[in-house]
Amino acid sequence: MRTKFFKLIVLLGVLIPLCSSAQTNVKKAFDELLKSSDVQYSETHSLEKDTETGVKRSQCDVYNFTLPASRFRLVENVLKAFKEDEDKAYALSSGTADKNSGKIVLAVGNGNGSSPTINPNGYDYHYALFLAPKSEDNTGCYRYAYAINWKKNKDKVEGSLIVTYATTLKYRQEATNKVVYSNGSNPENWFTTMVAYMGALSEQAANTVGQQTLAAKIFKQAQLSQNLKGISETDKEAARELLKTMILDTDKYDPLTLQLLKSAFSNLK
Question: Most CB contacts within 10 A, which of 52, 94, 96, 145?
C-alpha cells in the first residue's frame, strides 16, 4: 500500500522549535543568531509526516540572514558550537566554495525531492550530520543535517542556516541496491536501474570517487543497451534526455564523471 503523506509549507513563517537531540550546542547557537535584534532574516519551511502514524519523514528549514559585520561573533559562535558537538556527529565538512567547487546539497526526506545547496560560490560553509534520536527514529535510518554558510564584507555578513531531516545516504544506497541494482541486465528493469544509478550519482556531489564509480556504472548500463534485446525505444530516449540534462550540469560533476556521462550518452543505442 502506498504510504500517505501530508505536506506543510510555510513561507516567511515563525521560527519553529528545533528538536532535542545530540546537536544541543549547534541548536542554541542557531537560535542565538536568529533571535539577535541585529539580524534580519527570511525563512522557508517544509515538513512531511505519515498521515496514518504521524511519524516525521521529511523536514527542511532554511533561514537566509543578514547581520552587521560588527556582529560576526554570532557566526563564530555557530562555528564554535559545531566544534563542541562534533564528537556526536557521524560526518562533517567545511570549506570555501569557488566557481570550480562541486555543488553540495543536503538531502531532504528520501532524497528524491529538491535539496538546499550549502556552498554557493564565494561563501564559506560548515555542516554536520547527526543520527536522529531514538525517540524519533529507533531504526537508525534517519539523520539531521545542520549547516551554515556565510560571506563577509566590510559592512555586513550574508548567509544561511539550514536544517534538514532525511534518511542517511547509506540507507538510500542500500535500499536502491536491494531493489534494482541486481536486475540491471534484465530488459524489463534496464531503465529502472539506469535511473537508480543517476539518482545515486546526484547524491554524490561532494564525493569525487563516488561520482566516478556511479558514472562508470551508468556507462556500462548504456553499453548494455547495444546488445540487450527487449529494451523499448521509449526507455532509451528517456535515458538520453536524463543524461543530456546531467551533462549540462557542468558545475556539479568532476571532469572524469562528465566524460563518462558523455560516453554513456554516445553508447546509448
Answer: 145
Distance CA 26, CA 98 (A): 26
**Comparing C-alpha atoms, which of 214, 223, 216 is closest to residue 268?**
223
Which residues, other chains included, contact 155 with Cβ-Cβ below 8 Å and sequence gap of 6+? 68, 69
15: left (phi over 0), alpha (psi -120 to 50) or beta: beta
User: What's the rounded Cα separation, in Å, for the pair 39 and 19?
Assistant: 23
**Model confidence at 13: pLDDT above 50:** no
Distance of CA 199 to the CA centre of its chain: 11
Residue 116's pLDDT is what?
A: 93
The stretch 61-74 carries a mean pLDDT of: 97
**What's the confidence (pLDDT) of residue 206?**
60
Residue 135: DSSP 8-state: T
Q: How far is residue 137's CA from residue 174's CA, in Å, rounded to a whole number?
A: 18
- Residue corresponding to grid cell 558550537: 81
Which residues pair with residue 63 across a beta bridge?
43, 161
Report the candidate in 121, 146, 143 with the shortest Cα–Cα distance to residue 133. Answer: 143
